[in-house]
Amino acid sequence: MDELTFLGTGTSTGVPNIGCNCMVCKSSDPKDKRLRSSVYLNVVGKSILIDTSTDLRQQALRAGIARLDAIFYTHHHADHIHGIDELRSYNYIQKHSLPCYGPKDSLDKIRKMFNYIFDEAPLEGGGKPNLELIPIDGPICIGGVDMIPISVMHGNLPIFGYRFRDTAYITDCSLIPNDSKRKLRNLDTLIIGALGMPRHSTHFTLERALEAIDEICPQKAFITHVNHNLGYSKTLKILPKNVFMAFDGLKLQI
């Protein structure tokens, strides 16, 4: 059966935060240890990564990801792309370039931010990833499964979530446009980001994420991209019965 693995469920700082002594950061519960957000899909024998988080090397080793067939980017912020150099290990293994899909503006930013990967300068040192950046604005079929980009707003920045079969993954989001809500109808599983803060200009808070879940009406939902204000066990107790806290290493059948 096809499977989704949460490689990381933390916000941009990860959890624990550096230098923080709050109860969540000091927690002994492994479900309170959160690497930067990313998921891995194993669908019809194809290996798909959504975002190359800052913690990609650690995540790939822990999850045993031995190959990749495609990478899908949600946007170009650091916590979602700064593991990009780790992709060169898959080039060494697979002996070919890797297709990287995403919003055109974000891929243009990635090309500039990591110009050493994409320029024509002679190769020096330890090498560089061999990547093909492919802008998309509609579904891409990988191994018979459509990866459907879902446009959402991250503050003033338009970014992508993705729907695949009856599952959708949306992390850094402050607004889901009505057209995108229509594309999220009849979901079995919605994965959505939520910060443990009273308000935020570029992210859903937990309250607003729950409102979005109520409106979209999936069979079940999982909260991800979580900061250190939301402890796993305490938050789980106050969630509706069909809403769950995701945690690093959690696997879902899709």
**CATH homology-level superfamily:** Ribonuclease Z/Hydroxyacylglutathione hydrolase-like
Report the CATH architecture. 4-Layer Sandwich
Estimated structural class: alpha/beta
Shape: globular
The CATH class is Alpha Beta
**Spatial separation of the terminal alpha carbons:** 7 Å
What does this structure look like?
- With 254 residues, the protein is of the alpha/beta class.
- The protein has one domain (3-253): Metallo-beta-lactamase, Chain A (4-Layer Sandwich), CATH 3.60.15.10.
- Helices cover 22% and strands 28% of the residues.
- It is built from eight helices and 14 strands.
- The chain has helices spanning 56-63, 78-81, 88-94, 104-113, 115-118, 178-183, 206-216, 232-238; strands at 3-8, 38-43, 46-50, 70-72, 98-102, 131-135, 140-142, 145-154, 157-164, 167-170, 189-193, 220-224, 243-245, 251-253.
- Helix 7 links the parallel strand 11 and strand 12.
- It starts with a strand and ends with a strand.
- The model has no long low-confidence stretch (mean pLDDT 96).
Map the helices and strands.
Layout lengths: L2 E6 L29 E6 L2 E5 L5 H8 L6 E3 L5 H4 L6 H7 L3 E5 L1 H10 L1 H4 L12 E5 L4 E3 L2 E10 L2 E8 L2 E4 L7 H6 L5 E5 L12 H11 L3 E5 L7 H7 L4 E3 L5 E3 L1
Parallel strand pairs: 3-4, 4-5, 5-6, 10-11, 11-12, 12-13
Antiparallel strand pairs: 1-2, 1-14, 2-3, 7-8, 8-9, 9-10
